[in-house]
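Deliverable D4.2, example record:
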Amino acid sequence: MDEVEVVVAHPERATLRVGDVFLKVDADQARADAEVEAMSLAPVPTPEILWREPPVLALAALPGTTLGRLGGPSTGSAAAWASAGAAIRKLHDAPLPPRPGRAGRSSVALAAELDGACAALVTDGHLPAGLVTRNRRVAEAALRPWTPAFTHGDLQIAHVFVDGDEVTGIIDWSEAGRGDALYDLAAFTLGHEEHLDDVLTGYGGDVDREVIRAWWSLRSLLAVRWLIEHGFDPFAPGCEVDVLRSRM
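Output generated by the structure prediction step:
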């Protein structure tokens, strides 16, 4: 009999694995609807939907392995990272989905959220003021006009599966929608800057690396407090706080 593995669990949602089936439990049905819709529209491999009985979505496991995780060693060849870049480009070039996604927040809204997060990080004693101030300045470059693209919205490397040098699928589409393409590229390379060149080789085109670096700072500043409050450790080696320190 297969064991039940808790992949991730926090007050917003939980994902369980039983053999080759993943069970996603999400109390927010609008978010689950958005995930199903995005998978149906995405021009890249996604998990097969086995069944859906709200609040549970059952998905088939993808073949292959991930390229790594934040805070852990990166795996895969340069060609595999480039293949991931090519898959991300294919997604970004696809027709726009009907909904805005997590990567589609306005610069005004992001700036307000960022300022609040920075103030709280210092007031609550999570991070020193100098580290926060420096990264807030770096993050400013991400707050600029952008052309909407079909974005994943949570494209961390643990969500991209490869077999050899080929991408076999991308998971976790609940934040997908219209948004800033460079947000996806930054999320994918967060904590693994050494593979940015490989990813951009596959992605192609003229990409502003300073904006990607700005998103690393912005995403990390916004994430630290949420991670602490939900039982995760952004201070672990190679994770969000180390990303912020690397900007110093």
